[in-house]
Amino acid sequence: MRASIFILILLASLSAINSAKAQESDSPLDFTKPILAPDRIPSGIQVEIQRGTLPAAAADDGTPPRRILFVSLGLIKRFEGWYPDTYNDPVGYCTIGWGHLIEKKLCRNVATDKLGAFSPRPLDPDRGQSLLIRDTWPARRAVQRLVNVQITDRQFGALTSFVYNVGAENFRRSTMLRMLNAGNITGAQREFSRWNRARGNVLPGLVNRRACEAELFMGRGRNLTNGLFDISICRGNLAAAESIVDPIDIDVGEVAP
Fold first, then answer.
1. What mean pLDDT do residues 105-117 have?
2. pLDDT exceeding 90 applies to what percent of the chain?
3. Could you read off the pLDDT of 181-217 as tens digits, one per residue?
4. pLDDT band, very low/low/confident/very high, at 92 (cuts 50, 70, 90)
5. Among the residues of the chain, which ranges form H helices?
6. Which of 3, 56, 121, 186 has its Cα between 20 and 30 A from that of 96?
7. pLDDT in tens, 147-173
8. Contacting residues for 241 by C-beta, under 8 A, at least 6 apart
9. Are the CB atoms for 216 and 158 separated by under 8 Å?
10. Other C-beta atoms within 10 Å of 68: how many?
11. 105 vs 7, 120, 205, 225, 249, CA distance in Å?
12. In whole angstroms, what is the distance from residue 253 CA to residue 231 CA?
């Protein structure tokens, strides 16, 4: 039964990649319309900020963090999706742009002056990218401070995308970080695929994101000319979804055995 479920998830993930591949091209994007990202969930790092639970490793010390490659931003964009106007994400949080969290409530309940800070709308794509770059700062700080071995720019970008999605506290307590700091790069790369659940369910969108992060971590991948990560290279790692013994739910984090 469990194997059948994983096979269905794998097939759904492959279908999503094939569909996205068919829809994506190197043609320019229309930023006046939404660019959908399947199974998008709120950024874990932004939720930590809203809740006041951001760990010290990700806290602002007044200095900019390590810079991030555009290929890493392209990966984050691909899985956050774009909305040129305010909208309620799948869990009811008011959001805009490349997954920028305005407030942890429905947009109709957000103060008018706070929504006005994102006018005029539709949001300009340059403003949206600026918001995203700044939104990644806490994730980048967490990676800088928690990883105590040298990593490449692509490894840094893959980890930034991962921490942006799952949250800094989850990363701080993860087997991935322990393996990385022990110099086990291959073991750390294999850990990405375990983080494929949210709200108790394995989500094809997370399976795909983890596969792309793992590819970038190993130095592979590129952006299309429209600025989004080319997900066609991620297909090889999706087979791992069927054999994961101990998957991790983002909402719960890693549980000690």
1. 93
2. 68
3. 999 999 999 999 999 999 888 888 899 999 999 999 9
4. confident
5. 2-23, 44-51, 70-80, 112-116, 125-135, 137-146, 153-166, 168-172, 175-181, 185-191, 204-217
6. 56
7. 999 999 999 999 999 999 999 999 999
8. 6, 9, 10, 13, 193, 196, 202, 207
9. yes
10. 21
11. 36, 21, 23, 35, 23
12. 26
CB 36 within 8 A of CB 81: yes
* Beta-carbon contacts of residue 141 (< 8 Å; ≥ 6 apart): 57, 58, 59, 60, 61, 65
Cβ–Cβ < 8 Å for 202, 241: yes
Question: Tokens in use for 252?
Answer: 């719960």
Active site amino acids: 80
Whole-prediction pTM: 0.87
Residue 187, token pair as written in the block? 């073991």
Residues 6 or more apart whose CB falls under 8 angstroms from that of 137 comprise 60, 64, 65
**What pLDDT score was predicted for residue 201?**
85
Contact present, 212 and 230 (Cβ < 8 Å): no
Task: Please give the mean pLDDT across all residues of the chain.
Answer: 87
What is the SS3 assignment for 85-118? EEEECCCCCEEEECCEEEECCCHHHCCHHHHHCC
**Alpha-carbon span 120 to 122, nearest angstrom:** 6
Burial 18-55 (b: 16+ CB within 10 A, else e): eebeeebeeeebebeeebebbbbbbbbbbbbbbeeebb
- What is the residue whose two structure tokens read 């932004």? 46
Bigger pLDDT: 122 or 5?
122
CA angle, 39 as apex, 101 and 99 as ends, to 5°?
A: 20
Q: What's 250's DSSP letter?
A: T
